[in-house]
């Protein structure tokens, strides 16, 4: 678990993470996003919005963790949604997310 969050921090330091609703939506639309992570405690509306948008643009989506942990992992205040823009980081994190119990939904 800590290893996974530290890898998100590494991706952030490498400049391969986008956070915030509008920036993530823009990354999804431009095919820049390789993996989107939505906090498990995000509102049902927010989860549905990103689930639908990711399905439309065929971007993998993960719903899990909480906003505080996501924010802390990337060195920012609470974050509800983040996107990884590098395929290598996205693959590494997706592979590791399949083994954690904190993840509710992987598509």
UniProtKB/TrEMBL annotation:
Domain Ribosomal protein eL8/eL30/eS12/Gadd45: 4-88
UniProt entry tagged with the keyword Transport: no
Keywords: Ribonucleoprotein, Ribosomal protein
Gene3D superfamilies given in the database record: 3.30.1330.30
The keyword Ribosomal protein belongs to this UniProt entry's keyword annotation: yes
Name of this chain's protein: Ribosomal protein L7Ae-like RNA K-turn-binding protein
Annotated organism of origin: Paenibacillus sediminis
Record lineage: Bacteria, Bacillati, Bacillota, Bacilli, Bacillales
């Amino acid at each position: 678990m800590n290893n996974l969050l530290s890898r998100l921090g590494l991706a952030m330091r490498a400049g391969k993470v986008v956070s915030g609703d509008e920036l993530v939506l823009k990354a999804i639309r431009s095919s820049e996003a390789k993996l989107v992570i939505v906090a498990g405690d995000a509102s049902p509306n927010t989860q549905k919005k990103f689930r639908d948008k990711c399905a439309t643009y065929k971007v993998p989506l993960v719903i899990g963790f909480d906003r505080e942990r996501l924010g802390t992992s990337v060195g920012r205040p609470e974050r509800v949604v983040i996107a990884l823009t590098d395929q290598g980081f996205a693959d590494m994190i997706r592979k590791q997310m399949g083994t954690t119990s904190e993840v509710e939904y992987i598509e």
